[in-house]
């Protein structure tokens, strides 16, 4: 089981309590689709993804980004049992969505960069390390039910 | 593959960062050490605490090398030849670590440049740093 210090819990909780989901969610997904274009393979129903401009103004991408970001709320509320919390979502991503679990890391890296851009120097090395630990645990849990 | 537009963008960004090379480099290193403690094993002979002169001078060296490569990306193999030899025969840093420093560098850039570090700039930079790392590892075996 993953251990979280009081300091780590507080760092994670602070990041989320000051988060504008409607801004960060879309930005993270847009960034993922632009920086790692092969991830677009999962979004053929989203319409125009031809270039960065189109992706960043695509309403379906924005809506989906918000949805995915809110998916992290579950981990936030269940820090001590992230693995079980994401079992169902893991099955969904494997059996129904057929998403290569390597993609979870790509999106989580983009999310880290978006938040770094927003927080600037407040996103210290310590805050970054804690946030990345959190995301790594979620990513691992999402990949657990693949077989 | 890097388009000409991307090469220009990368060159322009690193030119701007050259005056703060030590600051950016040290920041990236600190981020890497905090997130990936295994990377510290390569620096046991240096003082890598925040603001140490070792950290700043080492960070500066790294950023200036990256900036120099950005001046003419098509010549990376030529520009990096001495560093290739250094890393392959002397330093022998496991190339997996290049990815870790690259990621840390991208975060440093995001913090420093804010909104200016657009998705397009990020994509170009990620590609450049990957190419840089690949060239650096060319003489390993």
Automatic annotation (TrEMBL), chain A:
The keyword Heme applies. Pfam families: Globin (PF00042). It comes from Pundamilia nyererei. It comes from the Eukaryota. Belongs to the globin family. Keywords: Heme, Iron, Metal-binding, Oxygen transport, Transport. One of its GO terms (cellular component) is blood microparticle. This is Hemoglobin subunit beta-1-like. Residues 3-147 form the Globin domain.
UniProtKB/TrEMBL annotation, chain B:
One of its GO terms (molecular function) is metal ion binding. One of its GO terms (biological process) is hydrogen peroxide catabolic process. InterPro entries: Globin, Globin-like_sf, Globin/Proto, Hemoglobin_a-typ, Hemoglobin_oxygen_transport. Residues 1-141 form the Globin domain. Keywords: Heme, Iron, Metal-binding, Oxygen transport, Transport. Coiled coil: none annotated. GO terms for cellular component: blood microparticle; haptoglobin-hemoglobin complex; hemoglobin complex. The keyword Zinc does not apply. It comes from the Eukaryota. Belongs to the globin family. This is Hemoglobin alpha embryonic-4. The lineage of its organism: Eukaryota, Metazoa, Chordata, Craniata, Vertebrata.
């Amino acid at each position: 089981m993953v251990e979280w210090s009081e300091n780590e819990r507080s760092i994670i909780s602070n990041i989320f309590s000051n988060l504008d989901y409607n801004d960060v969610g879309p930005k993270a997904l847009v960034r993922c689709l632009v920086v790692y274009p092969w991830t677009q393979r999962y979004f053929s129903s989203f319409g125009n993804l031809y270039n960065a401009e189109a992706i960043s103004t695509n309403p379906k991408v924005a809506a989906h980004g918000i949805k995915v970001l809110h998916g992290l709320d579950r981990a936030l509320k269940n820090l001590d049992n992230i693995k079980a919390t994401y079992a169902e979502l893991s099955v969904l991503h494997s059996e129904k969505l057929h998403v290569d679990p390597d993609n979870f890391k790509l999106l989580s890296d983009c999310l880290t960069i978006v938040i770094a851009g927003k927080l600037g120097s407040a996103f210290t090395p310590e805050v970054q390390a804690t946030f990345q630990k959190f995301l790594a645990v979620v990513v691992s849990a999402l990949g657990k039910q693949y077989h | 593959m890097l388009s000409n537009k991307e090469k220009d963008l990368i060159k322009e960004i690193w030119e701007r960062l050259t005056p703060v090379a030590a600051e950016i480099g040290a920041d990236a290193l600190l981020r890497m050490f905090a997130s990936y403690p295994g990377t510290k094993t390569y620096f046991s002979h240096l003082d890598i605490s925040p603001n140490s002169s070792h950290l700043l001078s080492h960070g500066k060296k790294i950023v200036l090398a990256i900036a120099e490569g950005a001046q003419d990306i098509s010549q990376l193999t030529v520009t990096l030849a001495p560093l290739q030899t250094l890393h392959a025969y002397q330093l022998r840093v496991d190339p997996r670590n290049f990815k870790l420093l690259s990621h840390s560098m991208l975060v440093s850039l995001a913090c420093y440049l804010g909104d200016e570090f657009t998705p397009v700039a990020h994509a170009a930079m990620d590609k450049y740093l990957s190419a840089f790392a690949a060239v650096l590892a060319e003489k390993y075996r």
